[in-house]
Amino acid sequence: MDELLNAIKKELEIRKECINRQPVSTIYFGGGTPSLLKHSQLAGLLETISMHYQINPNPEITLEANPEDISIQYIKDIVKLGINRLSIGIQSFYNEDLHFMNRVHNSLQAGKSIMIAREGGINNINIDLIYGFPGLTLEKWHSNLEKFKDFDLEHLSAYHLVYEPGTIFYHRKRKGRIQELEDELSLDQLRVLMKVMKSAGYIHYEISNFAKEKFISRHNLGYWTQMEYLGIGPSAHSFDGQSRRWNISRNISYIRGVNTGTGYYKSEALDTQARYHEYVLTSLRTMWGTDLSYLLSAFGRKYYNHFLLSSDSYIKRGELARREEKVFLTETGIFISDHIIRDLFID
Fold first, then answer.
1. How many helices (DSSP H) and strands (DSSP E) are in the chain?
2. pTM assigned to the model
3. Is the alpha carbon torsion for 100, 102, 108, 113 positive or negative?
């Protein structure tokens, strides 16, 4: 742990010029299990950041946490450090679902962790919930959302299970041990999600994210609006507007690479087509949609015309809508968003 933290601190120092000296407005401890870090270790990382970077007066500082790691003393300690947003990986309030997803915590710990976080002084809490997995009925999914509402939290990230190669779920599916949920039931669960969250007054600002007014995640918003960001640590990705860079994932190789200054990351320059694709992908996922004026000025007439032509049939069918210079997904379009976005790409 100490070796890894020292390497992360060193990378923070090495890359202090990478974000053009712009003030840091958000800090996000995420990926892996950052709640395993002690108060003193988090303090050391934040101290290193403040030493090498200019930080806005009121930054959003998020920590991802597992329910089983949360105690009242831990929460009070991290609040003193300036951490003001907590993202808790609840996933479900049902024990059988948590067992299926190989989660260590149980439903009792899930609810208790939320109450402890609130009691400890966190006034901006997100939880993650997962739907669309085998065995999840419409009734249970609705119950999960009702439990979320009961806690009166500021933010929800709700993700459909994806069978990514290399994951345990992908392996089980290939072996025939589990089967994907029927498409119609998945769509029904998405419909319920949007209906419940809308009726509760939450803003559906991105396909998978819902927030109370004034609690849209500033950090998440940076990804969806093409802002520059700096990723530090194993597997972390960075974006400077023109290129992407990503660190290798293996801890030992990362530590060695940072300490020797060699071979701990890869990068690629993004050509116009790649930047167009990324803009369409990220902007259409949000409630603000794709800005046609920006599209024309940033990518030129060729890409602008392609977008207009490719989006026309979806607008006529009511799956996309155009309001002045913005094009965005309708509620119907959200159900087939991946298909629509692929069609708007240029081969």
1. 15, 13
2. 0.94
3. negative
Burial label, 73 (beta-carbon count in 10 A; 0-12, 13-18, 19+)? exposed
The answer to whether 41 and 1 are in contact (CB under 8 A) is yes
**Who's near 229: CB < 8 A, 6+ residues apart?**
19, 222, 223, 238, 239
Residue type, 278: E
Tell me how many degrees the CA angle 255-245-217 measures, rounded to the nearest 5. Answer: 100
Residue pair 291/208 in contact by the 8 Å Cβ criterion: no
| CA–CA separation, 347 and 273 (whole Å) | 9
- Cβ neighbours of residue 153 under 8 Å, at least 6 residues apart? 114, 125, 126, 127
Domains for the chain: give ranges and CATH numbers. Answer: 23-222 (3.30.750.200), 273-344 (1.10.10)
CA distance 332 to 307: 19
**Predicted confidence (pLDDT) per residue in 38-88, tens digit:** 999 999 999 999 999 999 999 999 999 999 999 999 999 999 999 999 999
Q: pLDDT digit string (tens) for 16-31?
A: 887 666 899 999 999 8
